[in-house]
Amino acid sequence: MKRQSVDENHANPWKVWKELGRPRFPDKESVETLKEAAIPKLSTAKQKKEADGYLKLSITLTKNEVTLIELRAIVYETQTYEGLDDSLITSYSS
What we know:
Radius of gyration: 20 Å
CATH superfamily: Glycosyl hydrolase domain, family 39
Domain Glycosyl hydrolases family 39 N-terminal catalytic: 5-54
Protein name: Glycosyl hydrolases family 39 N-terminal catalytic domain-containing protein
Organism: Niallia alba
CATH topology: Immunoglobulin-like
Largest sheet: 3 strands, antiparallel
GO molecular function: hydrolase activity, acting on glycosyl bonds
Structural class: alpha+beta
Number of helices: 2
Pfam families: Glyco_hydro_39
CATH architecture: Sandwich
Shape: flat
Order of helices and strands: EHHEE
């Protein structure tokens, strides 16, 4: 599951514009900051199990949030790679 969210704290260039002092003519650096501030928050989630062909999602929206949720089938390919062992990665814990 891929979730892209826009709310009062994420992807809100208007809030950033106010924090920049509401510049009437933003300079190039401020314009770049505003562009960066407009990028939606991205989050992912582990694969969900379906029951009888249906997938049940439970989400909570924050104040004034708009969310796009994309679902797609995942094909695990880990078993196809011989010698791939995540436990060999330093500081890795599952």
